[in-house]
Specification:
single chain, mainly beta, Jelly Rolls, Immunoglobulin-like, 3 domains, 28 strands
Length: 412
């Protein structure tokens, strides 16, 4: 009975200790950027192809959906740190160079903090395995602190950024993104984690996010796909899909996707310019039909990454040639293409009723231009084409005579 009483007294004391180890309350904190950084600013620099470094102020951006005020969570004792999970589109490489964390010592203390990155467990979302990289720093006054990894870490799955107290007996304040209601700005995502007695837990008594902001780089490599196989037919619908859609659609990386996720607003991140005079179309997957007479066009896939502090624009280009349907060739006196099939050398002879501006282009079935000739304004024209070094297959010879276009097949 005496032993039982001692155990009950110990449990009661432990509960009291735990209750004293976390303190919540408002704090005066100003992020190291202005609200303008969370808006489109035409004066901001645009960076092409590789976005360089950007800082994902994701949890701060969530505060702008609420009352834009902040709290501090003071840890000590068995509470040994905090962490935040970030989601990466599966298989998309993202390089983490370090992170920004907001916090302070408490009552003049200068706690030593280990700032580390872990892969997130795919089921629990908690840190998995050993740290991939880490840095140490000391908190003093309430402000942003920058942890820089000596070697950047590239991940292709969700990751966790952790702030671990190396001296848990020193009170340490971490800043979170809400002070009006401690159950609002986590938005039910359960991204925050608490290190308690050597193990990571999801907080049960509040839903908010710590101000932990990864410094990342990522490559918006140019690319797009389409169901066009070789030169296209006029007035026929084709589909175009942006290769950037996975990263652009992530609310963690693209501010357009962030606002779409939380407010339902329009996301203009992926758009298409078909080069035929029609309006630019927005969407990661679109359909388009080229009007008759478009000729050769340049299709551009425009990927616009709206960063949290910068904007990035990446443009992918692919050239498709127009193949007219029902072109009237009766006006042409003679078009000869021989020998066909050819072992490598073919000759094109052209005879017209009157002189026209002549252009000839040779394409493979992938739509790639092999060669082109522009002899100028002529009535009779001969051309020798050498495809000796090209692979065996079918080629298309496009002949433009002013406003008249003809396509001939050439087999090697």
């Amino acid at each position: 009975m005496k032993n039982l009483l001692i155990i009950l007294m110990f449990l009661s004391f432990s509960s009291l200790l735990v209750a004293q180890e976390v303190e919540l309350g408002p704090v005066s904190y100003t992020p190291s950027f202005t609200r303008k950084d969370l808006q489109t600013d035409p004066q901001e620099a645009f960076r092409t192809a590789n976005c360089g470094l950007d800082t994902l102020y994701y949890t701060i951006a969530k505060s702008y959906l609420g009352d834009r005020t902040f709290s501090q969570v003071v840890y000590f004792g068995l509470y040994q740190g905090t962490a935040q999970r970030f989601e990466v589109p599966t298989g998309t490489p993202v390089t983490v160079h370090g992170f920004v964390i907001a916090g302070s010592g408490f009552s003049g203390s200068v706690p030593l903090i280990r700032c580390a990155i872990y892969l997130a467990d795919p089921i629990t979302g908690k840190p998995s395995g050993t740290a991939l990289a880490a840095d140490t720093l000391r908190f003093t006054t309430t402000r942003d602190y920058f942890a820089n990894f000596s070697s950047p870490v590239t991940v292709t799955q969700n990751f966790v950024l952790a702030a671990e107290m190396l001296d848990s007996n020193i009170r340490t304040a971490f800043i979170c993104n809400d002070s009006k209601s401690i159950r609002v700005n986590g938005r039910g995502e359960e991204l925050n984690l608490v290190l308690y007695s050597g193990a990571w837990y999801k907080p049960s008594n509040f839903d908010t996010d710590m101000i932990i902001s990864p410094i990342v780089s990522y490559d918006l490599s140019a690319g797009m796909t389409t169901n066009i196989n070789g030169p296209f037919q006029y007035n026929t619908n084709y589909t175009f899909t942006s290769a950037h859609s996975e990263l652009l659609s992530s609310r963690f990386f693209n501010l357009n996707a962030f606002y779409k996720h939380f407010t339902g607003s329009f996301d203009p991140s992926s758009s298409w310019d078909f080069g035929d005079g029609t309006s630019v179309v927005t969407g990661s997957r679109v359909a388009h039909a080229f009007a008759s007479g478009s000729g050769e066009v340049t299709v551009k896939a425009i990927a616009k990454m709206r960063g949290y502090t910068t904007q990035c624009t990446d443009t992918a280009e692919m050239v498709f040639s127009g193949q007219g349907v029902g072109v009237d060739e009766s006006w042409v006196n003679k078009v000869e293409l021989y020998p066909n099939p050819t072992d490598g050398i073919a000759r094109l002879n052209l005879s017209l009723p009157e002189a026209r501006d002549i252009r000839v282009s040779l394409y493979n079935l992938a739509g790639q231009k092999i060669s082109s000739w522009h002899p100028g304004k002529m009535q009779d024209f001969s051309l020798e084409m050498d495809i000796t070094n090209q692979p065996t297959g079918l080629y298309l010879v496009h002949i433009e005579m002013g406003d008249l276009r003809i396509v001939r097949k050439l087999q090697k």
